[in-house]
């Protein structure tokens, strides 16, 4: 199923959703232990990167650097669409917010510093509102 590819339409239909909880990035040299339930995995040359709920990492005594909030963009963008990531990352950058992006099959997901979640949501909702069709 192809998604939306028109940039103004993607921005208007972003519908950012703040997921509950906080999440951490881990670099593992072995498969995740039974107590970790990754929301994302990516096999890099150096290690297996996983994003997991922070409380699970704490229980497993995993080492991590920062905690992140997870924002999902509910628009189903086409995998070959151009400009959506640039638009929202630029808007967040102008607000002084870093973002780590996961482009999945149906939706894009943004991980921002946990303490910046509310401000990031305001910025993303504002960006979407500017392009409301």
- Order of neighbouring strands in the sheet with most strands: 1-5-7-6
Report the total helices.
4
**Secondary structural class:** alpha+beta
Distance between the termini: 23 Å
The number of E-state strands comes to 7
Chain oligomer state: single chain
User: How many domains would you count in the coordinates?
Assistant: 2
**What would the CATH topology of the largest domain be?**
VC0802-like
Mean pLDDT value: 92
CATH architecture of the largest domain: 2-Layer Sandwich
Main sheet: strands, sense, barrel: 4 strands, antiparallel
* Helix content percent band: 25-40%
CATH level-4 homologous superfamily of the largest domain: VC0802-like
What percentage of amino acids are in beta strands?
A: 25-35%
> How are helices and strands ordered from N to C?
HEEEEHEHEEH
Q: How would you portray this structure in words?
A:
This protein is an alpha+beta fold. The protein folds into two domains: 1-16 and 75-133, VC0802-like; 23-66. Helix content is 28%, strand content 26%. The protein has a four-stranded antiparallel beta sheet, covered by helices on one side. The two termini are 23 Å apart. The mean pLDDT is 92.
Question: What's a concise summary of this model?
Answer:
The protein is α+β, with helices and mostly antiparallel strands and 133 residues long.
Keywords for this structure?
alpha+beta, four-stranded antiparallel β-sheet, globular, VC0802-like, 2 domains, 4 helices, 133 residues, 26% strand, three-stranded antiparallel β-sheet
